[in-house]
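Appendix B, record 7
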Amino acid sequence: MLQAALTNGMMNRSALTMGTIYDNDPEKWRDIPIRNLQELYPIDDVISDALNIHRDCVKFEIYKGDENITYEVTALNENGEEIYQNSYLSRYYERPYIEEFPDMGKVHPASAYVCAMVNDKSVLNETFETDLTKIWNIYQRDILPEVGRVVMERSGGHPNPEQQPYFGCLNLKIKVSEPDYELPYRDDMITSIDAMHEDIYFVGADYFKMLGISVGVKPLDAPGLILPEIEKKEGKPEFSYAVILISV
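Structure tokens (predicted):
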């Protein structure tokens, strides 16, 4: 049997509940408690196939130790004796969910890192920004605020939900070298591209809702179409966007 112990890891705090868009707590963690488990899916099928054991033999438990780890794996033989044990610490960094509205709380995306060992001694252990992180920074720090200013200018500083939409389309074209392939289990995929597509759309939608709230009106839930178009390509990423306006 193989046991996978999942530590609460980065979520071993009192504020574990999923935040709503109306929260007013800059220290609130918006990450859901099962985040680490979600990122393993469907690891039980992968292990079952690789070790030729039944999927029911793969058990998930909450880690109750004191080590700073994200996952611990223990393998037991048919007599219940431990024959293998290992652990892994994932990396993440902290940032506001939406930078222009920090009171919405914080999120903790996965961070890339490089680790080099010489004679079992670490000689390099550093995190770095991925292409997707750099694209996300541009989206958060430049594009959303710019389109927000367009909405404010076109509404005379007083956006009215009943007069939506304020733009026709926010079209974001991205070409990036990221995993995007199907798994042979449960029609699932390993795809940073799909995840980025969802994040751009839903965070954008939350941004405009908060924009309305921030100026004392109702959430802007239909400001215009947010349309990410993301393609996989090798090499240096490409990122462009366009705001298509309509008569208001």
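Remarks on this record: Residues 167 and 245 are 5 Å apart (CA to CA). The longest helix spans residues 131-154.
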